[in-house]
What does this fold into?
Amino acid sequence: MRAQFVVSEIGVGLRRNLTMTFAVIVSVALSLALFGGSLLMSDQVNTMKGYWYDKVNVSVFLCNKSDAESDPNCAKGAVTADQKKQIMSDLDEMTVVDKVTYESQDDAYKHYKEQFGDSPLASSLTPDQMQESYRIKLKDPEKYQVIATAFDGRDGVQSVQDQKGILDNLFGLLNGMNWAARAVMALMLVVALMLIVNTVRVSAFSRRRETGIMRLVGASGFYIQAPFIMEAAVAGLIGGGVACGFLVIARYFIIDHGLALSEKLNLINFIGWDAVLTKLPLILATSLLMPALAAFFALRKYLKV
It folds into this structure.
């Protein structure tokens, strides 16, 4: 009987404050959709980092004859066979190095022609103007500084370049966008909480005579508060369901179909469905607990039970 009463009161409360209930659902849906989106953005950035950082190389470029005339780092002349042998020996002894690939001047010239064959500069270049280099794959991409310290400024070495630095700028931008989304999500969350508190207050005020009678007949505090808390929880849960729907639809149409970014941007390793599905229970739990707790604390202040 008591459970039936609580359920009936939930329906009555939701119908009485239909406009505010709708506002709660929309605000909770938007804030939790942004919450889920920010979590997925973090996963996407981490996935891209793991994919690209595993592919980046540290390049040790060696001096050639042209560099000896124009580059201060190569003032002692082009790299010698003994210097190359010593560099390779040192690389083999370094524990941070996973793999070393040597690129000759002819190989560098061939790769340049493949990538920039249409450039006007390509026709004027010759293989002897290209630089020999060692392409180094590290066990930990963060250990670039170890290579730079060991070889930067050494005789025969023109420069040490880390491809990871280029990616850091991209990931910094993506992280900035993610934090901006979190800021908007926090703002929407505050709006949702304010709407929930106001909805509970209006509902409690409209039923103050009923709650007063219940207190007189000895109803417990929890028994009086339960319908109001459940109203907020149900509205929040509906909003959470809508937020989950937003995320699933966004993943389906943006990555798989519609825009089909997974087909158009083959160089990006997109997150899978498992990343989306694992976030849905968290969003639903948050949508249920957040309004219920907000209603509970609002009732303690505005409903004297």
Summary: The mean pLDDT is 80. The first strand starts at residue 58 and ends at 62. The two ends are 22 Å apart (CA to CA).
